[in-house]
Design a protein that fits this description.
4 helices, 16 strands, 8-stranded antiparallel β-barrel, 384 residues, Porin, disordered N terminus, mainly beta, 8-stranded antiparallel barrel
């Protein structure tokens, strides 16, 4: 529950700050573009060869409904102008995952950002929309009452969705939405079992666009003095091509279980330390490479001095606003202690300032299986 409150607080602060900043800039033009949308989701599960996948429960597929409230930035001098004016917002999800006795009735709260790909002159616009949040109200594994659910070992999990969607501008205010999306639920092996749930399917919905400044300008329901309901995106502004080189230091902690703790609340601490070289080509693209130090208290059968691992990695960052979506892949130069030949680290970084940052990521085992979630902070002591 503490993690749930923390993520909700971060989402609230982020979107409150973003809305406040956007409103201050938009007041000059009397245009404050907002939208409300609702979507239905339905599809199938990506199955794995285990008791759950072989039980037939996943054959029934899934359904779901999402409701979103969004903001559209318009400042021609702001960061959004250099990315095609993406919109952002908060959403709520209600899912129906085949068998409620096994999975529960998952709900989620999340933040999203919609990056338009097609030009604004097109009536049918293609966009890519990642979402990240928290899922709750799951029915976890229990060896006595829910032994089939080897996918989820806790009542809460991370919610991740990526939508490849289309928006058809149907009327002045109304959009018709359709697309293909992928959804993932996982707790990062904080509690086991944690094979995760992977869903893929299609979605259909509607979006209502409105201008929040209309209520201040003229609130008469019969007025002809009407502001535009949607933002017509201009051409993308030129991006900052200034690059640079950085040395960053990142330290993170986490918790996790082994199979021996399944069904209990017992967890053990983990630690990650990263020394990175970062070459930034421009404000969007960065290549990274560095050294990793890991300490894992789940190795209880060996001395404390033998619970360490050393690794090296390379990676890529995609940056926008104060955020960076990171992906790193690495290998161990020490004994991997059964963790496999390589690991990955997808992560989200928030740049508090030019020197300090906060980061949350997933450190994986060989392949894409979760090892543990990293929660950490870092700084950049050297820049040139």
């Amino acid at each position: 529950m503490k993690k749930l409150y923390l993520i909700l607080a971060l989402l609230t602060c982020f979107f409150s700050y973003s809305q406040s900043s956007s409103d201050n800039l938009e007041n000059n033009s009397q245009n404050r573009f907002r939208f409300i949308e609702i979507k239905s989701h339905f599809g199938a599960f990506l199955k794995s060869d285990n008791a759950l996948g072989n039980s037939g429960i996943l054959d029934n597929g899934y359904g779901g409904v999402t409701v979103k409230l969004g903001w559209q930035p318009t400042n021609p001098n702001g960061w959004a102008s250099r990315y095609g004016y993406p919109s952002y917002g908060i959403g709520a999800y209600v899912g129906f995952l085949s068998d409620a006795n096994v999975f529960g009735n998952p709900n989620a709260i999340y933040g999203f950002m919609n990056f338009p790909i097609s030009g604004s002159h097109k009536r049918n616009v293609f966009s890519i929309e990642p979402s990240l949040g928290i899922t709750y109200n799951l029915n976890p594994f229990d060896e006595d009452t829910n032994e089939l659910n080897t996918s989820i070992g806790a009542r809460a999990a991370v919610y991740f969705n990526i939508d490849l969607g289309f928006t058809y501008k149907f009327t002045r205010e109304l959009d018709l939405l359709y697309g293909f999306d992928f959804t993932h639920f996982s707790n990062g092996s904080t509690f086991r079992p944690n094979r995760g749930l992977n869903l893929y399917g299609i979605n259909l919905g509607m979006r209502y666009n409105y201008n929040a400044a209309q209520f201040k300008k003229d609130n008469d329901p019969y007025t002809n003095n009407v502001l535009p309901a949607r933002f017509k995106r201009p051409l993308r502004a030129a991006r900052d091509t200034t690059g640079g080189n950085y040395i960053s230091v990142y330290v993170a902690g986490g918790v996790g279980q082994t199979d021996r703790e399944i069904g209990t609340n017992t967890v053990f601490g983990t630690f990650s330390g990263v020394l990175d070289y970062e070459h930034q080509f421009n404000e969007v693209h960065t290549l990274t490479g560095g050294v990793d130090f890991f300490y894992d208290n789940r190795f209880r059968d060996v001395e404390a001095s033998e619970r360490t691992l050393i690794g090296v990695h390379a990676g890529y960052d995609f940056s926008f606003w104060k955020l960076a979506m990171k992906f790193q892949i690495g290998t161990y130069v020490s004994d991997d202690k059964g963790k496999g030949g390589y690991f990955m680290r997808p992560a989200l970084r928030y740049n508090i300032s030019k020197t300090f940052f906060a980061q949350i990521g997933l450190k994986t085992l060989d392949g894409g299986s979760a090892d543990y979630i990293e929660y950490g902070f870092g700084f950049k002591p050297f820049k040139w």
